[in-house]
Design a protein that fits this description.
Blueprint lengths: L2 E14 L3 E8 L3 E7 L18 E7 L7 E10 L7 H17 L7 H15 L4 H15 L19 E4 L18 E4 H12 L12 H19 L4 H10 L1
Parallel strand pairs: 3-5
Antiparallel strand pairs: 1-2, 1-4, 2-3, 4-5, 6-7
The protein binds zinc ion.
């Protein structure tokens, strides 16, 4: 039985029988895997504290012939989002992990997705403001899938999008203010667009230095919810929970 060791990101776990868990994790070098962590539900388990969503860890696992589930030998956390300790941040880690899980196909290597996830964990652990971090993460995960609308120019007239943009109802492109019908669709102010341009260049740890007004944050939240709903064909359970928490 070949043993693999890899850097990985824990995405989620399920109960298995009386004492075990199934762990879904994204490896840097071999894509997403599902494995059995024997005894993980016991009070004194070597996996205790290592299986929270978005934990960065060194993982060793065996692949078994003809079996989809690998057998996990150990999970050695290198960075845990629990280090942050703010309830709001911890409320989001399940959401980040669920989005990565949705978009990472089984056993398909996607190092950029892995690096995005790992950088988000570092930012949560460094107590970066979580609202900005969530918008940053949504922007990047949609970009990596190639489905974030262009911000460089209006697709209708080729003009710039510096003063603001609108995503018309039923369309998924940002039009300039002269091409979009006023009062319909989802609007992004100049400030919201500036945040996206900065997010494109900045590492997430630097988000603390970007200011975002409550209004611009709401615009981006609405636009992202529309884009995610379109490309996922469903609303994530964790996203619904987060929205109820905010109310
Ligand atoms: Zn235009």
């Amino acid at each position: 039985m070949p043993v693999y060791t890899s850097e990985a990101l824990i995405l989620r776990t399920y109960k298995l029988g009386e004492a075990d868990r199934i762990v879904v994790f994204l490896t840097r070098d071999r894509g997403k895997k599902r494995g059995v962590a024997k005894g993980a539900r016991r009070a004194k388990s070597r996996f205790t504290g290592a299986l929270e969503p978005m934990t960065r860890a060194g993982v060793a696992y065996y692949e078994r012939e003809q079996r989809e589930l690998v057998r996990i030998n150990y999970v050695e956390p290198t960075r845990s989002p629990l280090a942050a300790g703010t309830g709001e941040a911890l409320g989001h880690v399940g959401y980040f992990a669920e989005l990565i899980d949705e978009w990472a196909p089984e056993a398909h290597v996607d190092e950029r997705l892995y690096r995005l996830g790992a950088s988000i964990t570092e930012a949560v652990a460094a107590s970066v403001p979580v609202q900005e971090l969530a918008l940053y993460f949504e922007y990047w995960i949609l970009r990596l899938q190639g489905v974030y609308p262009a911000l460089s120019a209006c697709p209708a007239c080729g003009g710039g999008l510096n003063d603001g943009a609108t995503m018309p109802a039923g369309e998924h492109a940002f039009l300039c203010l002269s091409c979009a019908r006023p009062g319909s669709g989802t609007s992004l102010s100049r400030e919201a667009l500036a945040f996206l341009r900065a997010a494109r260049l900045a590492a997430p740890e630097r988000l603390a230095s970007l200011t975002l007004s409550a209004r611009a944050a709401r615009e981006l939240e609405t636009a992202h919810r529309r884009l995610l709903a379109l490309h996922l064909d469903k609303e994530l359970k964790s996203a619904r929970v987060l929205r109820e928490m905010r109310r």
